[in-house]
Amino acid sequence: MSQPRSDADRMRRRELYDAASGGGGPRLLPWTSPEGKPCYLSTDGRGYISTLADSIETVQLSMGQELLDYAREATAPGAKTLSATEYRWLACRLTEALADALRVADSRGQRIPDQEEAAEDA
User: Fold this and answer.
1) Domain that holds residue 21
2) Which of 22, 24, 86, 103 is the most exposed place for a label (fewest CB within 10 A)?
3) What pTM value is reported for the model?
4) pLDDT digits (tens, 9 = 90+) for 27-66
5) Which position has the higher pLDDT, 73 or 11?
6) 1 found inside a domain
């Protein structure tokens, strides 16, 4: 389980969110087109689709954390041995969760202003 966030953590996350949603170009969304191509949104970070994307990213990261917890329990010394099919299922889900987490990191990283840009704006 994750630890509760302190007020300082919440403030820092809000500052990063505000900086990231400052219109630094199109936002990479946490889903793809039916053809598997990336989807982007031109936004100020405050609209319905942007909020939906934030919610989906939160769910993806939470599910990834739960899956990681399960994987740690399943592979701990003394844990019941899973079948090959169960290990394959776990590996597939972990792969999906990692892909989701990397996409979220990429999207958020693209929205954080460069240090030089931030200094110029100040």
Assistant:
1) 7-121
2) 86
3) 0.70
4) 999 999 999 999 999 887 788 999 999 999 999 999 999 9
5) 73
6) no
> Does residue 115 lie within any of the structural domains?
yes
Inside any domain, residue 104: yes
Q: What percent of the chain has pLDDT over 70?
A: 79
Q: Cα–Cα distance between 81 and 73 in angstroms, integer?
A: 11
Task: To the nearest 10°, report the CA torsion of 9, 10, 13, 18.
Answer: -150
CA angle 114, 32, 99 (to 5 degrees): 70
The DSSP element (H or E) to which 31 belongs, if any, is strand 27-32
Contacts within 8 Å (CB) and 24+ apart, 118-121: 118/19
Report residue 60 as tokens. 């993806």
Query: Has residue 2 been placed in a domain?
Result: no
